[in-house]
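ok new one. same drill as before - structure tokens go in, u give me an amino acid for every spot. 230 of them this time. try not to just spam alanines like last time pls lmao
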């Protein structure tokens, strides 16, 4: 008996997006991500990288084309189902960390579990284990104001992975950090992502960051093209 092929975590076909005012960001964009695959996306400022991530997250709708996450076509889901898919199967890491200041760090990391209805002691234990993964196991009771930028981004990474999503979306996750810290955080990010067998789409301007990915693509008006180094 032949085994069924593994379904792609993300399948994008024929994607077109224009911004209000009419400028076309991209057309005919296609991308397929397999479980555990890490793809870096580069491209000029204003090329539409953040817009692309918003489309993949189901936060915005394309003008044409289709996006399927774990085989589910986003356009065929209603708002509630899209929200559930995002909550259960997608993790985010943003440039501006978005760590909530009034929750302790372990509570911040546990948040995706709480939102998925899995609160309580097991959620805090899982969040604590994730804090250890990013070498901040001793800081769970602290608050965001007590941490450096690099530490905050490690918290954000732990939070993005805590609910074991199938897909991680990261929008310039180390853009606010100095180059040395950024490189260390990116390495930690990729190591943690690989360990979790999560597929990841990472937008970055850093060649060094991109070098740790399985594939590097450049976003252009014609879609995603192979990147051939600096
Ligand atoms: N809501 C919006 N209304 C009008 N223009 C937008 C909107 N969102 C993005 N844009 C425009 O779309 C282009 C792509 O933006 P963005 O996706 O943020 O690019 P990138 O992340 O690659 O820098 C930019 O020119 C931006 O001004
Ligand atoms: Mg952007």
């Amino acid at each position: 008996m032949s085994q069924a092929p593994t379904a792609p975590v993300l399948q994008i076909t024929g994607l077109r997006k224009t911004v209000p005012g009419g400028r076309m960001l991209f057309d005919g964009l296609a991308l397929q991500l397999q479980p555990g695959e890490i793809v870096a996306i580069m491209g000029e400022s204003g090329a539409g990288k953040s817009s692309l991530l918003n489309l993949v997250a189901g936060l915005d709708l394309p003008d044409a084309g289709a996006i399927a996450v774990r085989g589910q076509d986003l356009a065929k889901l209603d708002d509630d189902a899209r929200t559930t898919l995002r909550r259960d199967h997608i993790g985010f890491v943003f440039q501006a960390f978005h760590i909530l200041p009034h929750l302790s760090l372990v509570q911040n990391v546990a948040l995706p579990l709480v939102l998925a209805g899995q609160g309580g002691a097991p959620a805090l234990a899982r969040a604590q284990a994730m804090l250890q993964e990013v070498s901040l196991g001793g800081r769970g009771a602290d608050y965001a104001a007590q941490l450096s930028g690099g530490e905050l981004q490690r918290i954000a990474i732990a939070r993005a992975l805590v609910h074991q999503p199938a897909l991680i979306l990261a929008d310039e996750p180390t853009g606010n950090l100095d180059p040395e810290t950024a490189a260390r955080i990116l390495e930690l990010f990729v190591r943690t992502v690989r360990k979790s067998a999560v597929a990841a789409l990472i937008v970055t301007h850093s060649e060094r960051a991109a070098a740790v990915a399985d594939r590097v693509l450049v976003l252009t008006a014609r879609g995603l093209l192979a990147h051939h180094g600096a």
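The chain is about 35% helix and 25% strand. and btw Residues 165 and 198 are 7 Å apart (CA to CA).
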